């Protein structure tokens, strides 16, 4: 039986495709974007997350951990030995303050479809549906294809939110049951894409062209990150790439934000853009002008 690893299900989502939607967030991503606001989605395994602001300092987790992965630091601090941790969940079960949480859970296709179907009435009245996002849903193509197929059988509009970095044969499985593709375009230059995301964009651009040739509507999303991809040169090259698409529905420019920064500390990770600011309204407007002046139907969220 095919099962998926997810980290969240968001109901009444309005930014993941048309209408009111339910978005299933898949765990695991082949990219390591410097600005990622869902770092808990990158690993393809469950992870222990520590909410320091919830911790009451009772020390129970130190006592119950069977492998000593919860470590008391001199002076009243703490650390978590992630290499030693077996994710047994004992500390989570005994944390009355709910400061420790395991991020990521397995779910069956039946259970996923049942939960995605709970707001069927809202999909029908708003022109909405369900969206698979992440992380990168294409890391789990068999699960995604089956969930989308079953949802389509129920008459739901289906959307796939993807970075585009996956083998084409996996896309073929999933696209057969997809109504709309939400597709990331981060950087036009392959070397810069490799630097800031950990992978080249050659496969990303190739898959974008192949999806377009299938005739599926594509909504391209460009995260606007100051100092990384907001240069006129990058945006002009992105426009050139997008002008070659026949089924581009729109381009959505997503201004960089810092709402995910606290998540890195919870995972014991270091955020790579501590000084980067949110682009101003004028900078977003300038980016839109570059795209729209070249015939691209762009707007900002």
SSE layout and pairing:
Elements: E1 3-13, E2 21-26, E3 47-50, H1 60-64, E4 70-73, E5 77-80, H2 90-93, E6 100-103, E7 105-108, H3 109-116, H4 120-126, E8 129-133, H5 141-153, E9 157-162, H6 168-175, E10 180-184, H7 190-197, H8 202-213, E11 218-224, H9 232-242, E12 248-255, H10 261-266, H11 281-292, E13 298-300
Parallel strand pairs: 2-8, 8-9, 9-10, 10-11, 11-12, 12-13
Antiparallel strand pairs: 1-2, 1-7, 3-6, 4-5
Helix pairs in contact: 3-5, 5-6
Overview of the molecule:
- There is one protein chain.
- This protein is of the alpha/beta class.
- The protein folds into two domains: 238 residues, Alpha-Beta Barrel (TIM Barrel); 57 residues, Alpha-Beta Plaits (2-Layer Sandwich).
- Helices cover 31% and strands 24% of the residues.
- The chain has eleven helices and 13 strands.
- It has a nine-stranded mixed beta sheet. Strands 3-6 form a two-stranded antiparallel sheet.
- A hairpin with a 3-residue loop joins strand 4 and strand 5.
- Helix 5 runs parallel beside helix 6.
- It is globular.
- The relative contact order is 0.15.
- The model has no long low-confidence stretch (mean pLDDT 96).
């Amino acid at each position: 039986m095919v099962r998926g690893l997810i980290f969240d299900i968001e109901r009444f989502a309005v930014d993941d495709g048309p209408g009111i939607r339910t978005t299933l967030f898949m765990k695991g991503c082949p990219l390591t974007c410097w600005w990622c606001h869902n770092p808990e989605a990158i690993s393809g395994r469950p992870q222990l997350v520590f909410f320091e602001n919830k911790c009451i300092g009772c020390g129970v987790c130190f006592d119950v951990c069977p492998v000593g992965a919860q470590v008391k630091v001199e002076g009243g601090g703490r650390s978590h030995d992630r290499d030693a941790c077996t994710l047994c969940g004992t500390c989570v079960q005994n944390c009355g303050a709910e400061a420790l949480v395991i991020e990521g859970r397995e779910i069956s296709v039946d259970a996923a479809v049942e939960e995605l179907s709970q707001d069927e009435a809202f999909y029908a009245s708003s022109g909405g549906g369900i969206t698979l996002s992440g992380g990168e849903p294409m890391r789990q193509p068999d699960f995604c294809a089956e969930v989308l197929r079953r949802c389509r059988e129920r008459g739901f509009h289906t959307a796939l939110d993807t970075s585009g970095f996956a083998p084409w044969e996996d896309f073929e499985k999933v696209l057969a049951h997809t109504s709309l593709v939400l597709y990331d375009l981060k950087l036009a230059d392959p070397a810069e894409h490799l630097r800031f995301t950990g992978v080249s964009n050659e496969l990303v651009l190739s898959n974008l062209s192949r999806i377009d040739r299938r005739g599926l509507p594509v909504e391209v999303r460009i995260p606007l990150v100051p100092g990384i991809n907001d240069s006129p040169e990058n945006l002009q090259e992105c426009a050139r790439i997008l002008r070659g698409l026949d089924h581009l529905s729109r381009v959505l420019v997503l201004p960089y934000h810092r709402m995910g920064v606290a998540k890195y500390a919870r995972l014991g990770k270091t955020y790579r853009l501590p000084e980067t600011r949110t682009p101003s309204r004028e900078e977003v407007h300038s980016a839109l002008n570059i795209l729209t002046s070249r015939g691209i139907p762009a707007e900002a969220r």
